[in-house]
């Protein structure tokens, strides 16, 4: 906790942050259970379909896959998944094995969905929760159709479980 206090102070974060996190049912960044980083990566972009298409082309050129994350900044689980993907460990995996694309889908479960044609393009016709995570071959084949919708609990998954699943999906036959 001392290391967290020192680094937190350097970032302007209260030294009480670890206590607040623990009382809220989360843990500190020291690796205790329940901790997850958060990132707001679901920006509204001009042409997200073109971004997906470009990622598919890059994946074909590099011999990788596309990691398509459909989520929203309002969603705790979407922010948690994006937070993990922004860490050094996950950035290395993504750089080696994936082309990462975030698509803001708004709040489809309340009728305020955005960019749902992208989800539908890859077989997610009823996007009832966020985030959804699709792994695509360069040809656009979905590698994980059974688990694509299962990420709505991303905030409660462990770093290792997420990493292991993404590593598996990077090499799983389509």
Question: If you had to describe this structure to a student in words, what would you say it looks like?
Answer:
There is one protein chain. The chain is an alpha+beta fold and 174 residues long. The chain contains seven helices and five strands. It has two domains: 35 residues, no CATH class; 124 residues, Glutaredoxin (3-Layer(aba) Sandwich). A hairpin with a 4-residue loop joins strand 3 and strand 4. It is globular and about 35 Å long.
Question: What is the gist of this entry?
Answer:
The chain is an alpha+beta fold. The protein has helices at 2-11, 17-23, 48-62, 76-85, 88-97, 116-121, 159-171, and strands at 65-71, 98-104, 106-107, 112-113, 132-136.
Under the CATH scheme, the architecture of the largest domain is 3-Layer(aba) Sandwich
The helix/strand class is alpha+beta
> Could you say what the CATH topology of the largest domain is called?
Glutaredoxin
Largest sheet: 3 strands, mixed
- Cα Rg: 17 Å
Mean pLDDT: 83
Give the tags.
single chain, 174 residues, alpha+beta, Glutaredoxin, 2 domains, three-stranded mixed beta sheet, two-stranded antiparallel sheet, 7 helices
Give the arrangement of secondary structure elements.
Elements lengths: L1 H10 L5 H7 L24 H15 L2 E7 L4 H10 L2 H10 E7 L1 E2 L4 E2 L2 H6 L10 E5 L22 H13 L3
Parallel strand pairs: 1-2
Antiparallel strand pairs: 1-5, 3-4
């Amino acid at each position: 906790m001392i290391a967290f206090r020192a680094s937190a102070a350097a970032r302007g974060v209260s030294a009480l942050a670890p206590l607040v996190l623990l009382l809220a049912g989360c843990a500190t960044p020291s690796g205790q259970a329940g901790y997850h980083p958060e990132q707001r990566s679901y920006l509204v972009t001009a042409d997200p379909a073109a971004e997906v298409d470009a990622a598919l082309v890059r994946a074909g050129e590099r011999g990788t896959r596309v990691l398509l994350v459909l989520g929203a900044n309002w969603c705790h689980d979407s922010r948690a998944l994006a937070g993990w993907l922004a860490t050094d460990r996950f950035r290395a995996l993504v750089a080696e094995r994936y082309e990462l694309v975030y698509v803001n889908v708004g709040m489809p479960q309340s009728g305020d969905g955005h960019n749902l044609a992208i989800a539908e393009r890859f077989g997610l016709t009823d996007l009832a929760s966020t985030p959804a995570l699709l792994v695509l071959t360069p040809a656009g084949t979905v590698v994980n159709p059974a688990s694509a919708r299962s990420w709505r609990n991303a905030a409660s998954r462990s770093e290792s479980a997420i990493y292991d699943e993404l590593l598996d999906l990077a090499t799983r036959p389509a």
